[in-house]
Specification:
2 copies of one chain form a homodimer.
Chain A lengths: L6 H20 L2 E2 H8 L3 H13 L3 E4 L14 E4 L5 E7 L3 E7 L5 E8 L6 H13 L11 E8 L19 H9 L3 E5 H11 L9 E6 L3 E7 L2 E3 L30 H4 L1 H10 L7 H9 L3 H25 L3 E5 L7 H14 L9 E4 L6 H13 L6 H7 L4
Chain lengths: ~400, ~400
């Protein structure tokens, strides 16, 4: 992780960031202006600029003849608007989602394809490759691809590390590296959905955020200080495995009575059917709700209250603030979210109540792929903060 | 907070840290060697060195005549071993604790004094001043005092910010500033005890840690990436107000059934007496335990299990790792900590179990004051990382 890099590496990254930030703020600059603005020595600055030009982040150009003044024309440096396209791929359980973003932070396109659960990893990577090539009506230039961010199901022990495979997906980084020939960074896809919501979604621009995803699995992610909090083993955000029922049902994790056993989409549908309802999936449940089905309403009120309890404890622990609820089950809307918010506010400590801000997620199923891009943009030394700055060009 | 400083400020801090780190690694260096090692321009380097010399962190000296070679002698720069003494003051409910640390990270001394709860703030500050002057057998040089770190009871909304008073303690920073004439930074004293354990105590050197304090109040702190996690409103670490009993007893926070209502020292003593035991305070309870009192044993087993539940949920959320238990109640030892650890391991998700590492706190009642010093050392731009680096001088 970047925070554990040595001071010289850290400083060098800081120098690059500063150069990129100054170029985005001031527009085209000569090397000498850049030198006086940055406080860097001529040697250091020339090295850094050479590196940024070599990797395509910065372009050097001479002024148009009409703009030239007397004397030798001075080369100016600018950000390269075509540089640094990043793609994100989310390998979900039964689907692949892809997204591409350019250096100006514009989403070029997203695409998804469902597949059978037993699809092999080489087949999934092929599918991802085909989806990527379908993006953006040909505006995606894979020649300027900087990196691939990848989301996978389950814990990732050294997330963000190029060399680290996801658990049980040993060959994946190699397969992707072969296919795209650029660095590959990996993290848990639910955690990445959290990062995406904090970058482009319901919590855009927030530096602190709790994200809970209620889908067929229940999990989440924590964004602290603008970065993903992963925990020492990359095992954070396992909100679905907080125990809520004494001697409850067995859970996929090996425990019993976990939140996931009562609040996952599957658990809710099972409970609905056990209470006499008929619904194959969450849209069917949502439609029963819209028709005024009291069984569905009471069930979701119970589930919402249970989830609110867990979130209240979490807000007491990490601090109250923005809480974003995503996943298929969140699509049931107020029937779930109102009792959830009520329980959350009732159970968080009174002093903290006013700071709780509950919002539904906005990015849907491509959140994981977008988060994988955000991971690259946040963690790659050169591009870190770069697109944010490119945006602020408009401001200045 | 430092993480929200602008890029130029961040970079400037990075420059200072680099200069301090190079001096600590290489020993005495000339300005020109420092220039080539750091990559900084002459102008930037001279400005930074001038600032570091002015605030006493760095001293410039000419070589001894015997060591001189031909030509004009070259001034060398070194870290000032006497620079940057920091004091920490913990204003607890009924006591003041102080500690002083020098730039080499050595604890010069600690002192404590109990007082009546109704003591006014000017009186408490006077008491703190007298305690500070009693430290270190006169080796404390208040002339080289860099800053005062302060811990207070209750939430602190903008912790680490010099200008921000603690809630309900509006005049305190001014009183302290008048008294010591150096910058004052403030945070919640339980959170500071967490930082102290991660710096000098049970979790020394750990970058990730959960700290829980079981005293007459129940609270804690989270250290993530080597820094205190405060939450957006400075309201994190309120583990004592996580609800554990449905329709439970009223809590000081205004809620009901909080962990504090069952696991604080007061709650445990009340429950012990209600069950027929006799104990005025925690030492009396501990002595009953040693004599084999089954009521005390069963009670602490229940309390431990309850606390373990809460910690398991917390480890699932923020990631399993080092958990440190402090506060007076922790002094009851295995009677509390064994059932606590058992519940924690049983309730954390199975995949995470192996990563849980439970330890008793080691710093005792001066933890808050030491943490206030750690706060200054971590957050002050100039001294950030400085003492750590001064330590590594021995390594190279």
């Amino acid at each position: 992780m970047s925070s554990q890099a040595g001071p010289l590496t850290r400083l060098r990254r800081g120098h690059k960031e500063l150069v990129l930030e100054l170029l985005s703020k001031h527009g085209p600059l000569s090397r000498s202006s850049l030198g006086s603005l940055s406080g860097l020595s001529r040697t250091t600055l020339y090295e850094i600029v050479a590196e940024l030009v070599a990797n395509g982040a910065v372009v050097a150009s001479l002024p148009e003849p009409a703009e030239r003044k007397r004397g030798r024309p001075v080369e100016k440096l600018t950000l390269n608007p075509g540089a640094g396209q990043v793609i994100g791929i989310d390998f979900a359980r039964r689907a692949v989602h892809v997204a591409a973003v350019n250096v100006a932070h514009d989403v070029i396109g997203t695409a998804s394809a469902a597949h059978a659960a037993e699809l092999t990893w080489p087949e999934r990577v092929d599918l991802a490759g085909r989806l990527v090539h379908s993006l953006g009506d040909g505006s995606l230039d894979l020649g300027s691809l900087t990196a691939v961010g990848v989301g996978v199901v389950g814990p990732v022990f050294n997330p963000g590390d190029e060399a680290t495979p996801a658990r049980g997906v040993d060959g994946l980084p190699d397969l992707l590296h072969e296919r795209f020939e650029v660095p590959v960074v990996t993290d848990n896809n639910t955690r990445l959905a959290a990062l995406a919501e904090a970058t482009w979604g319901a919590a855009a621009g927030s530096r602190e955020m709790v994200y809970l995803r209620l889908s067929y699995g229940v999990g989440g992610g924590l964004v602290f200080g603008g970065s993903l909090h992963r925990g020492p083993q990359g095992l954070s955000g396992e909100f679905g495995h907080i125990k809520v029922v004494e001697d409850g049902k067995p859970c996929e994790c090996g425990g019993t009575g976990c939140l996931e056993t009562v609040a996952s989409a599957g658990a809710v549908l099972d409970a609905y059917r056990a209470a006499g309802g008929t619904a194959e999936d969450v849209p069917a449940l949502a439609s029963a709700l819209r028709e005024g089905d009291a069984t569905a309403r009471d069930l979701l009120a119970d589930v919402g209250a249970r989830v609110g309890d867990v979130l209240a404890g979490l807000c007491n622990a990490v601090g109250p603030g923005l809480v974003v609820i995503g996943g298929e089950l969140a699509a049931t809307g107020p029937a779930l979210l109102e009792p959830l918010e009520e329980a959350l506010r009732a159970r968080v400590m009174p002093l903290s109540r006013q700071w709780v801000d509950l919002r539904p997620a906005t990015l849907g199923e491509t959140g994981g792929a977008l988060g994988a891009i955000a991971l690259v943009l946040h963690e790659s030394p050169v591009l870190s903060r770069y697109p944010m700055n490119a945006k602020s060009e408009e401001d200045s």
